[in-house]
């Protein structure tokens, strides 16, 4: 087994954590050699929710590593403990499901070159600077809230207009954000919560992505990325959102569809789902004003890290994937037909 390991790079790429160091609300990435950074409270949470047993953790990682080396020896993927733990935690330490998730993770990159080719923060600086998405800072006090509540990804949907740049650039920025968010172990255990503000979203924004693009985005988030999405909170949604959700819902698994919560303009409803301590003043919270620039600085400061991670040869070259692989041959014509029907629904709601 040692000889096999020598033929594959098992170490994490060097990470410059200085960019995130200036934002004490975002933890630095773990070191290349695995050392558990979870608090006792999160260790307990991982045991209860993810079936993660600290005494078996490295044994489970080795089991997944052995599966990869045996079943996909040509797969150029990271095999270090910290990386593989992401997939085990996302699939509650089920080896087979974690293996499938890892393959989906790499297959998504191959199937969607518009998103993953030359993927680095500088190529989506216009999206980040615009404030289409940001990550809300966790509360800094010594209270327990900051360690047990999920990280909140905020989407300010009206910031994007179809004439400004292609929607796929938003997907690129979103993926980079998820890659950065999943590095700390606490996010792997707590997951993330999405807060999407649809204030001022009109027909042009709602109808632009379409089912074909929506299906790919949902496929990546549900089946191709090792992160737990605990809830999707929609705030200030217009009537047209019924049509938007009609595009998305057919591709959602039942459990994920149930995690969508529509609040309208009711902040009290939002506060029942997201603690006020993590919400900015704009949403009746106590975390100060909404800062749309800090996350941009975090990602742009990690340019070299993402070059190492994404701007490399295709990891699937020479790999034979199972027939049930994610993203295999979507029926584009069928999607176009369904889009025409859904577009009429959008106009009706609008």
Topology record:
Elements: H1 2-6, H2 18-21, H3 40-50, H4 57-71, H5 81-90, H6 95-111, H7 113-116, H8 125-130, E1 133-135, H9 145-148, E2 151-156, H10 167-181, H11 185-190, E3 192-197, H12 203-207, H13 210-223, E4 229-235, H14 241-248, H15 254-257, E5 260-264, H16 267-273, H17 294-300, H18 303-310, H19 332-349
Parallel strand pairs: 2-3, 3-4, 4-5
Antiparallel strand pairs: 1-2
Using the 3D structure, state the CATH architecture: 3-Layer(aba) Sandwich
What shape does the CA trace take?
Answer: globular
Number of helices: 19
Series of H and E elements: HHHHHHHHEHEHHEHHEHHEHHHH
Overall CATH class: Alpha Beta
CATH superfamily heading: CRAL-TRIO lipid binding domain
Strand percentage:
5-15%
Q: What spatial order of strands do you see in the largest sheet?
A: 1-2-3-4-5
Mean pLDDT: 81
Number of strands: 5
Helix content: 40-55%
From the helix content, strand content and strand pairing, which structural class follows? Answer: alpha/beta
- CA-CA gap between termini: 61 Å
- Rounded Rg: 20 Å
Main beta-sheet strand count, sense and barrel state: 5 strands, mixed
CATH topology, what is it called?
Phosphatidylinositol Transfer Protein Sec14p
As residue ranges, the low-confidence spans are: 1-22, 140-146, 328-350
Q: In the residues, how many domains can be counted?
A: 1
């Amino acid at each position: 087994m040692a000889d096999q390991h020598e033929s594959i790079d098992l170490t994490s790429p060097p990470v410059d954590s200085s960019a995130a160091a200036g934002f004490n609300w975002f933890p630095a990435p773990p070191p290349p050699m695995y050392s558990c950074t979870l608090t006792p409270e999160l260790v307990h949470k991982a045991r209860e929710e993810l079936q993660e047993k600290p005494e078996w953790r490295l044994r489970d990682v080795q089991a997944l590593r052995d599966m990869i080396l045996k079943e996909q020896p040509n797969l150029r993927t990271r095999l270090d403990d910290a990386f593989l733990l992401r997939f085990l935690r996302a699939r509650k330490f089920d080896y087979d499901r974690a293996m499938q998730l890892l393959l989906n993770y790499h297959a998504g990159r191959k199937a969607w070159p518009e998103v993953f080719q030359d993927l680095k923060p500088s190529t989506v600086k216009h999206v980040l600077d615009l404030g289409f998405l940001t990550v809300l800072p966790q509360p800094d006090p010594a209270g327990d809230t900051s360690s047990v509540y999920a990280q909140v990804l905020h989407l300010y949907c009206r910031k994007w207009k179809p004439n400004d740049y292609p929607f796929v650039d938003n997907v690129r920025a979103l993926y980079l954000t998820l890659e950065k968010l999943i590095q700390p172990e606490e996010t792997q255990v707590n997951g993330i919560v999405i807060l999407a503000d649809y204030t001022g979203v009109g027909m042009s924004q709602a109808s632009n992505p379409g089912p074909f693009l929506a299906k790919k985005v949902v496929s990546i988030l549900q089946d191709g990325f090792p992160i737990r999405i605990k809830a999707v909170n929609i705030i200030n949604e217009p009537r047209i959102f019924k049509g938007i959700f009609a595009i998305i819902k057919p591709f959602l698994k039942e459990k994920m569809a149930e995690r969508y919560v529509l609040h309208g303009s009711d902040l009290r409803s939002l506060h029942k789902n997201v603690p006020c301590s993590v919400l900015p003043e704009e949403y009746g919270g106590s975390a100060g004003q909404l800062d749309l620039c800090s996350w941009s600085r975090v990602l742009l400061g990690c340019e070299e890290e993402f070059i190492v991670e994404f701007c490399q040869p295709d990891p699937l070259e020479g790999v034979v994937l199972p027939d049930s692989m994610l993203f295999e041959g979507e029926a584009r014509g069928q999607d176009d037909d369904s889009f025409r029907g859904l577009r009429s629904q959008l106009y009706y709601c609008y």
